[in-house]
Amino acid sequence: MSKELADAFFTVVDESIGWILECTEGLDTARLNWRPVEDGNSLHAIANHTMANAERNILSSYLGKPYAYDRAAEFAAEAKDGDTPLGRRWAELRARIVAGMAAAGPEAFDRDCDHVRMVRVKGWEVLVQVSRHAAEHVGEARLTRQLIEAASSQRRAPEVP
Fold first, then answer.
1. In which band, very low, low, confident or very high, does the pLDDT at 35 lie, cut at 50, 70 and 90?
2. What local confidence, expressed as pLDDT, does residue 159 receive?
């Protein structure tokens, strides 16, 4: 049963990141980097942070792989012309996560894990956290996309600082 539950949690993560990436489709670099308020998150930052959170929590906390944690950099990142597309980055990371979870087997679900914020928790608690976190950012991404579209429909591009 634990493999099925681990897979179900990852499905939520995968779908949530997919929905976030849908919000970035068709946008130029300026719109990907646009922030609705000065200290708000751009669509690029939301996608970057959500993928980094999945990487940190699943590959590092759940599967024990090394990861250099820099939360501020996740949000500060800006899209640049010529960057690897976000969808390709997710496809590559997703493949690593799927392979790692398969190799870890169902035992990882109940194993004790070290987590950067929650300290020592069970594997399933890590998966709950990352799936909840990814789902939360879907709403933020959808609202940000709607704000970009609203500004664009007024025949002006969002201002980029």
1. very high
2. 65
Number of domains the chain is built from: 1
For the chain, give the longest Cα–Cα distance: 55
Residue 158 has pLDDT above 70, yes or no: no
CB atoms within 10 A of CB 65: 13
3-state secondary structure of 25: coil
Q: Is residue 94 part of a domain?
A: yes
Q: Is residue 100 part of a domain?
A: yes
Long-range contacts of 122-127 (CB under 8 A, 24+ apart): 123/6, 123/62, 124/2, 124/5, 124/6, 124/9, 126/57, 126/58, 126/61, 126/62, 127/5, 127/6, 127/9, 127/10, 127/57, 127/58, 127/62
Give residues with Cβ within 8 angstroms of 56, minimum separation 6.
Answer: 67, 69, 116
The rounded mean pLDDT for the chain is 88
Q: Under a CB-based contact definition with an 8 Å cutoff, are residues 120 and 109 in contact?
A: no
